[in-house]
Every structure is written in C-alpha cells, then in structure tokens.
Amino acid sequence: MSNAPIIFYDIPSKAPGCAWSPNTWKTRYALNYKGLAYKTEWIEYPDIADLCKKIGAEPTMIRKDGRPYYSLPVIQDPKTGAVISDSARIAEYLDETYPDTPKVFPAETHVLQRAFMAAYDGATEPLVSYIIPAVARILRQGSIEYYVRTREESFGKKLVEVWPTGEAHEVKWKDVEAGFGKVDRWLNEPLNKGKPFVMGNVVSFADFMIAGEMHWCRQAFGEESDLWKDMMTWHGGRWARLVADLKKYEGAREEDMTD
Q: Which portions of this protein are annotated as coiled-coil regions (predicted)?
C-alpha cells in the first residue's frame, strides 16, 4: 500500500492564497479537519474534463443533452487507488476509508445534511448575480476565456450585464442579505441558539459548505471591498465568526499563483 499523500485537484486563482472555489474548499476543509496528508495539483478550467477522463474520475452530472459534465474537486488516493469526484462523495469516502479520523458526516446525518445543502443553495441564490461575474477578475489567464464564455452561454448575456447596478443593486443586495438571514434564523432555533455550527457544537460538512462560500466571496469581491465588509457585519457577525472558528482547518496557505 502506498504511503504517498492524497492528490487533491483544485482550480487556481490570482487571489491571495490561491484557493477560492466554494466546492473545492469543502474538500480542503475536510482533508485538514481529518488531518490527512495531501498535495494540491492546480488545474485550469479548460483542462478539467481531460484530467478527469485520464484518471478515471466520474462526471459530476449528466447534462440534459446527455453530455457528461466534469468539475472539481477530485481526489486521487494512492493508498487505495480510488479516484473520487464531488465534494460530498469525497467526504463520504474519507469518512469510510479513514474511520479513525473525525467524521465530516457524523453518524446518520447524511440525508439531513444533504437536505440542508439544498435548502441553503435555494436561500442564497440571489448571490449568484454578484459572485459569478466577480470570479472572472481573479482567475488566471488559462481559465478566463473558458469561464467567461461558458457562463455567458448559461446566462444568455454578457457577464458585465449580470452584475446588478443602480437601483437594481440596492434591491438585489438586500435580497442576498435576506437569503443569508433565512439561514441565520434556521441556525438560531432555540435548541441551537448561541452555538457556532449547524450541528450546534459539532463541526460537519454543512459548516464547510457555508465557510467555503465565505472564502468564495472574500476572494472574488476582495477583502477590502464594501460588499465583503458588509457581509461580515450581517446577522451579528455570524459568518465572520464561522470563518474564524474554522480557520484552524484551512490548512497551510498555498503559494500565490500569478501569470
């Protein structure tokens, strides 16, 4: 059995610390929380599908037209030979394969956590109009054209037209805050009130999902931006505290990637 570290495939950026993707952050948190040795391989957007096919990673989903869609994160575990895609499946694999490490999905919470993730995505959907255009400014040259082209095809308009401006911004940004406010109310139910995590005092995958999105916003908007500073004040500073509480699981700062 190989003693080589797990290979973790992530998408690079020009932002400080390099890591930015909310989906790959879930896996980065999981690996660090479990204390598993790994090394990051940085893959630009246009190269993701070819990499996945080469190493045998399953597509994340099948499009309506039948074409497979490949995305990161993906891990390759030399100890078992396994290649796993999708952050939730990766977490489940790590829990099963390394049972003596802390559980990312505590016992019998898989279904409830997946339900929470779906509800969270629905509540925070208004963020999309801001975050997707913002990401384009931090990607490296190898990913920008692919990212912008595919996102503009999805929106049916230029990315600069997706970003709300003027009065539309005033309304939309309040919608973003209200969406996170809905999540805050869930977490402030009487039995969980005052506790730091989705499961009270227990860290789980759901926390990594939320904190991963916080990193996404910080990197894409910029730490000195008005949007990021505003988010960190929302709901009594809940989201700022969550990132701070999980900081010990962020791992070593990756070397900045610049063109």
A: none
DSSP reduced 3-state for 61 = strand
pLDDT in tens, 70-103: 999 999 999 999 999 999 999 999 999 999 999 9
**Contact present, 117 and 209 (Cβ < 8 Å):** yes
CATH class label, 6-97: alpha beta
Q: Where are the domains of the chain?
A: 6-97, 110-249
Q: Which residue, 5, 10, 1, 18, is CA-closest to 257? A: 18
pLDDT tens for residues 8-54? 999 999 999 999 999 999 999 999 999 999 999 999 999 999 999 99
208, 211, 189: which is closest to 200 by C-alpha?
189
Specify the fold of 110-249: Glutathione S-transferase Yfyf (Class Pi); Chain A, domain 2 (1.20.1050)
Q: Tally the C-alpha atoms within 13 A of residue 3's C-alpha that lie toward its C-beta.
A: 0
In whole angstroms, give the CA distance from residue 208 to residue 71.
18
Q: How far apart are the first and last CA of the chain?
A: 38
